[in-house]
Write a structure and sequence with these properties.
The complex is a heterodimer of chains A (about 325) and B (about 250). Chain A has about 325 residues and is mainly α. Chain A has 14 helices and 2 strands, in the order ααααααβααααβαααα. Chain A has a domain of about 200 residues. In chain A, strands 1-2 form a two-stranded antiparallel sheet. Chain B starts with a strand and ends with a helix. Classes of the chains: A mainly alpha (about 325), B alpha/beta (about 250). Chains A and B meet through helix 8, helix 9 and helix 10 of A and helix 2 and helix 3 of B.
Chain lengths: ~325, ~250
């Protein structure tokens, strides 16, 4: 009898495993520049996922650059001062630092701009506007060397898969549902004996950690970090991508992030001085015609109660 | 008899309006008490004072012998006082079943129990019969915003009941419910309440409902309790009839 739930679970996971396999094969078929673009898009998708998690609780963050930069600069400072180069340790460090920042600061635009000012002015520590060059990381002692681009792609893809799985798990847990409950009715949450404040705080933590993880992985693949990571326009980009992709599924931020990077790349190539206008036009069209984001093209039906976990049994 | 709730000399004013004026009352274990009175007489204020939404200017509130005056609603709920609302307070984008599962998860761990799935087999086994008690069978997969008002009222009480309270406070459980549905709703609610033995207090405007379901009725007027009797005796009193029913 136990075989039935296991086979159901395997059948449910099959499409995602197939997608993961396809993405694993993809770098062999694509030119290097496109592989790099996908790596950056996947890394930023984690930050966007964090913004989307907050949006599910009706919280909009225009300060997520703070966590993105914290993750990236953790890589920079750990390399510069501690001579740490191992990707796993750096990822753990970025998660801890961004989580600690989220625990203390919350999600205020002001803090991200304070960090921006500090990164800009503390030249001897941060390199100021020049930013910092980060050394290519080793992965559990293995130095990928010439295959670094592909190694970063797989590392980022692995982290993204883990982040998606954990976020999906979180959203199907009481804590995730509590975030939806808080969005719907804070009064009822308090009159059930739960704390709205704590519920929001935990969502902040998850969101901040995802932001830091994304920043860390961008630092790996780009090899250079700059104060602009924490600038408000970067935070705005993350909100833009969340709206672009939608948040009806944990996969929507990934779709939004990939489309955003592609559009930006081509818009910049075609029109270097007005590419932001192209992006603005696209966002306007999305808001007018696809208010639930690009993901609604793949899942056009009306959302069920908890679409992020809709494959679970009723 | 054990006293579940005791209010002593409660006072609360809103500008010139006395919503509670030296209000004292004792409610014993297992009683089903109705509260009636004209608009502005302090009925809902009494519930708000007991549940901690408002703090009294004077007076104390004791629940099972412990003073709860001025505690936060969350703390009062955790002690075992649950309430429903005149306008049902629900998670409208979730299904009926998910609303119930959230309530059970919060009861189990107050903030839920971490990263384990909400839909555990044990929690589903508890939620479904509980919903059936309140008349939700096939509708349990329905998104709450699509429920009719009667269904919302029942679910609002069901969620409070799921918290396992010792004292259940219901604010106008039939307001907004059609005349055809009100007795069905109350039959269901009071049936579950009597079966469980939970002490309950309900505020109600509909005198038919009060006469039929309350075993004790408190009549509020200008923040005071002007009568406290079983419904039979109370509605025979011409003073009360004039006050509540507006009879000359």
């Amino acid at each position: 009898m136990r075989g039935a739930p296991v086979s159901r679970a395997l059948a449910g996971a099959a499409p995602w495993l197939a997608a993961l396999l396809a993405l694993a094969i993809l770098p062999r078929l694509l030119p290097d520049w496109l592989g790099f673009l996908l790596t950056v898009a996947f890394a930023k998708a984690m930050v966007v996922l964090g913004v989307a998690v907050l949006l599910r609780s009706n919280l909009v963050s225009f300060g997520h650059g703070l966590y993105f930069a914290a993750g990236a600069y953790t890589v920079g400072f750990a390399g510069k001062w501690l001579h740490l180069r191992d990707a796993v340790l750096l990822i753990l460090g970025a998660v801890v630092v961004s989580g600690a920042l989220a625990a203390v600061l919350g999600l205020f635009l002001a803090f991200s701009m304070i960090l921006y000012s500090l990164l800009l002015r503390l030249y001897s520590l941060t390199g100021g506007t020049d930013g910092m060059v980060t050394a290519p990381p080793t992965i559990l002692g293995f130095a990928p060397g010439a295959a670094a681009g592909r190694a970063h792609y797989y590392l980022t893809l692995g982290c993204l898969a883990l982040a998606l799985a954990l976020t999906r798990r979180w959203l199907s847990s009481p804590l995730g549902y509590l975030a939806s409950a808080i969005r719907d009715n804070e009064i009822r949450v308090e009159y059930m004996g739960a704390s709205v404040r704590q519920g929001i705080y935990r969502t902040y933590l998850l969101s901040g950690v995802l932001g830091g993880l994304g920043g860390c992985l961008v630092a790996f693949s780009v090899g250079h970090i700059a104060p602009e990571f924490s600038y408000w326009t970067q935070s705005g980009d993350f909100v833009f991508v969340t709206v672009l992709g939608g948040y009806a599924s944990v996969f929507a931020p990934v779709m939004g992030s990939v489309v955003f990077e592609l559009v930006r790349n081509y818009a910049y190539a075609l029109s270097p001085y007005t590419w932001q206008m192209s992006l603005g036009g696209i966002l306007l069209l999305i808001v007018l015609f696809l208010p639930r984001g690009l993901w609604s093209l793949l899942a056009p039906r009306a959302p069920v109660s908890n679409p992020w976990t809709s494959s679970s049994k009723r | 008899m054990d006293v579940v709730l005791e209010a002593v000399g409660l006072a609360k004013t809103f500008g010139a309006v006395k919503a509670a004026d030296d209000l004292s009352v004792r409610i014993s274990r297992g009683q089903v008490v109705g509260i009636v009175g004209p608009n502005g007489s302090g009925k809902t204020t009494f519930l708000n004072l007991v549940t901690g939404y408002l703090s009294p200017a004077r007076g104390q509130i004791h629940y099972l012998g412990k003073e709860i005056t001025g505690l936060h609603p969350r703390q009062v709920t955790r002690l075992g006082v649950a309430r429903s609302f005149q306008v049902p307070q629900l998670y409208t984008s979730l299904t009926v079943l998910e609303n119930m599962l959230v309530a059970l998860a919060i009861r189990a761990g107050r903030q839920g129990d971490g990263w384990r799935a909400l839909r555990t087999r044990a929690r589903l086994a508890e939620a479904r019969p509980l919903l059936e008690k309140f008349g939700f069978g096939d509708e349990s997969g329905q998104v709450v915003r699509t429920l009719p008002e009667g269904g919302r009222k029942l679910l609002d009480v069901a969620l409070s009941f799921a918290l396992g309270p010792r004292l259940l406070l219901l604010d106008e459980p039939t307001s907004g419910v059609s005349a055809a549905d009100k007795f069905r709703v109350m039959d269901t609610l009071i049936g579950v309440i009597r079966e469980s033995g939970v002490t309950s207090v309900f505020v109600e405007h509909d005198m038919d409902v009060v006469q039929r379901y309350a075993e004790r009725v408190l009549v509020f007027s200008e923040g005071r309790i002007i009568a406290d009797d079983p419904p039979g005796a109370l509605f025979a009193d011409p003073v009360v009839r004039r006050h509540i029913l507006g009879e000359e």
